[in-house]
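ok so i was messing around last nite and threw this chain in just to see what happens. nothing serious, just curious
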Amino acid sequence: MQRSKWWGWGDDGKSYHIPDPERFWDYVRARLGPTVFHPPVASLERCEVRRSRLPLSLVAALSNIVGNSAVLTSKTERAGYSLGKSYRDLVRIRAGRVPNPTDAIVQPRTSEDVRAVLDIAARERVSVIPFGGGTSVVGGVEPESDGLVLTVDMGGLSAVVKIDPVSATAVVEAGITGPDLERQLNEAGFTLGHFPQSFEFSTLGGWLATRSSGQNATLYGRIEDRVEALRLAYPGGNLATPDVPAAAAGPDLVQFVCGSEGSLGIITEAKMRLARLPKVRDYRGYAFESFGEGVGAARELMQYGLHPAMIRLSDEPETESTLAMRPPPTGISGVVESAGRWYMARRGIRLEAAAIMIVGFEGEKVSVDHQWNEAKRVLKGYTAFSLGSGVGRAWQASRFEAPYLRDLLLDHGILVDTLETSTTWDNYVALHAAVRDALHGALGERSVIMAHLSHSYSDGGSIYYTFLAPQERGREVEQWERAKVAATNAIVQHGGALSHHHGIGSEHLPWMESYIGSEGMHVLASLKASLDPAGVMNPGKLLPRSQGASRG
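result:
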């Protein structure tokens, strides 16, 4: 099943709404120069996709497991499943190029179907790529260039099997999407609390396989914190981890599977820890004189012992960009912002040159009120100018919309991509500057490099970059690679995480050994060899094929 538009993000017919287009495009042209309209090719049918190489005997064997209608081999179906949603992916498919198409898509309905498909694939030495929502931005679902490939679409395993209100847990099949899962949990009075920006289209299995981190992870935890037990189908077997809240029985097998990116097997089911639906959600905006000062405030909020649902801090370029895209505030929000601007101006600060923070607390009203009182004590120690709750409400209303803006910018010949990392507080400001400078060096003066703090911990936080530049026509991928290499080198050399929540896929793979060391790579390769001796599970992701098992 096609989960979102083939040439971009999200639902067909939906696009990013810019309230004041003239103001926004003036901002873009002032920094990037004139733009050129460059729409995608008209349809998937016009894409260059080679014929399926899957033998008819193998198609028949797979059909015996899942049914004839659940083995897809048409050109358009295979094109739609062969690339994710990274900038590199979209540049190629928008130009009609699908260089490494899968040979077939298999749509199992049960975990037994998954296991049977994997057994056939291992026996026939056919690579297998798990597919949830297809939202990978690091090359996680693209086949390698050689060998036969099956893509396993997990959309048929999408049930909430059981909700346990006493233990506050739920057993859930891995193919369920974020909205379907959250709706059913909410009806029972619970939430998973996991809201990545891909929430509307990504799946539970994909979150677990990539160690996803949602926008409210500061309160609810990352996805690996929310999973109690899981089931993994792999060639020749099934792994079911013990169903207990905690144990001291050797290394945690759940954590071995989380982040494995389909290289060990396919997650079919998980038991998740839930939280009660919050009665109150209170998000407010603050402006700081500088990004560095806002980082200091975020660190102190976390080390003070508070439990915010979110701290999001935009650096100065991102603040300016965000303000250029929004309508002028009205009503109470407008009054509060005007007062804030006046007060800031007395201190010689413009809002567009400030760093805006959004802080949110969720839960029972008494707890939320108490935490806000304590948070305000912390913020009084900084030049934190209150912008009121309108900023927080506006962010909540549009929290999943940003990827649609990328499509609009691509239409106008603009390179736009994101990357993320994390580091400790003592290294945070230095790493932020090093990656920013590396991107500027790779893209030149006609570029915009902006970032925000999206996830906070007691010992550090994430840095999430967005960068824009005019596309180098005919060399769009090479231009992107130049920026990607420069930024990732800076991350690794300056003590950042190779990935905080996007995963490794194929795009980060060249840096894995320098990040975790040759010993770390040996451990991962040994684990893969034990579960996937034929080396068929998503080869070339997380581990180079040469360090996985032999294909024979």
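not much to say yet. The mean pLDDT is 94.
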